[in-house]
Structures are given as structure tokens and as C-alpha cells.
Amino acid sequence: DKAMEDADECVRLQPSWAKGYLRRGSVYFRMGQLEQAELVLKEGLDLDPGNDALKKELEAVMNAIAERMARQRESLEAKERAIEAFNEQNYRGAVDLLKKAIKLDPDNHIFYSNRAAAYMAMEKFDKALKDANECVRLQPTWAKGYSRQAAAFLSLGELPQARESCMKGLDLEPDNTQVKEELRRVEIAESLALKDSATEAFKAQDYEKAVEDLTAAIALDPTNQVFYSNRSVAFTAMQMYEKALEDADECIRLQPTWAKGYSRRAAAKFHLGDLQSAKLAYSKAWDLEPNNAKTKADLEHVLSEIAGMKVVLPDRA
Fold first, then answer.
1. Domain covering 223-309: architecture
2. Known SUPFAM superfamilies for this protein (predicted)?
């Protein structure tokens, strides 16, 4: 930096002195900014076409550019072969080829992105995250890098970090399909974590907390019938039978072949005093799961209440 400052000042003081351009071009060369070095050295040669030092330095720069281009071509060939290996599910081979590509061109963010994908397929999530982070560092305005980052965080169970990476990607490209899909996976994982939290709250008889967690889970994934089923149970425990019935019905709508939804509906109807509807719902649940002993016992209880005497049903084969 100091050398560049002096070279710039030299050119400013004497813009027609070719040697100043030699100094500036040499600094760019040492900094690896080859194209900039080429431009500056050519400016110097325009001023002094016969300057041997400028010619020699420019030749060295052009050789370096040619070597870099050759390395880049080789690295891109390795990347293409890595893609073929990945598609053949040869993830180890893909990683090895991408290592070669990165060695040849360590500034190409796509190589790190692709290797992160290969590490994910190998379930080496720490390594995938490391590559995703490097991809983002090299190209912080590329949304796909954040989707790689989010995928690794998600697999490591780091849900807040996964969500943050998704949001950064969507800030850059709001319509990016890959980032949107990754965010959806994060939301599903978050909803399942909330379901687990609700289960623990229910066991502790903290039914309000269970309802709160399940409501948050439903907001994240309104298509999961289990959330409605579990919230129906919590509402039943709170003696909020109408709400329990609403959730049971939504559970059935989402998954009409799942016996538990009908059991939830039956329980709500029973507590609301509608024994006939409870009987029908338990009967449907038993039809779907004929070996479920609890459903059979619940149906027998409802039938006994209707008949005013104990009813015992035969087991189903």
C-alpha cells in the first residue's frame, strides 16, 4: 500500500515520466492485479516506447496472465468433471476434483459452493459449512452461497443461523427459488422443534404453552395434520371443546385417512354431549386402525353411554 501511494504520487507529480508508470505497474503486478498492471505499463510505453524496463515488466505481466488463464481453464475442466462425478453420486471423486480446481484458482466462489454440496451429500456438514462460508466471503452478493450456508446450518441443527442465511440470500434475490426452498426446509424444522416443545409443555400440564407452541408451528407449516391433532388434545385438556373440534376437523381435512384425526373429533364431540357423532367418529377411526386397542375401548365407552349399559365389542382380525 505504501509503495502504491508513492508510485501514485510520483505519477501525479510528473505524469509524463515513464518510470513512474513502471513503479506503479510493478506494484500492481506484485499485488496480483495483473490487468491493472498491464494497463499502467502500456501507458508508460506510450510515453516511452523504447523503455526496456517497461517492456520487460510488461512481458512478465503478460506471461503471468497467460499462466493464470491456463490454470483457470484447467480448473474449469476439473469443475466440469466434478459435476459429472456428483451426478453419478461419486461424491468423494467430486470433492477431489474440486480440491484440484480450488488449488488452481482459489478465488472462484463456485468451486467452494459445489464442494459444499458434495460435502452435504457425504453428510460432512462441518466441512460443507466451511466451504459455504468461504463462498460467501469471496462473493457476498451471490444468493446461492447463502443457500449453501443455510443448508449446512440446518443439518447441524443451527436453526436461527440457517434462517438468517436464508434471509440474507432473499435480501439479495427475493425470487431466488433455491433460497426459498431452503427457507421452507428451515421453517419445517422450526415447526417440528415447536411441536416437540409443545409435547414437553403438555406433559408438564402447561396446556396454554402447548397451544402457543403449536399455534406457532401451524403458522410455519399449516399443512401438517399432526399439529392440529396435538392442539386439539391441548384444547380438550383446557375444556375448550369447540376449538378442539375445529382442530380435529382440520386434521381430518388435511389427512382423511389418518385414524387419529377421527379420534380427536370423537373426543371433542363426546365432551360436547354429541354421543352419536362421537360414536361415528370413533367407528371411523377403528375402521382405519382395526388393531388399535385404545380406539376400540373409547368406542365401547361411548356405546356404553348411549346404551346405558356396558358394551363390549369383539376384536377384529
1. Alpha Horseshoe (1.25)
2. TPR-like
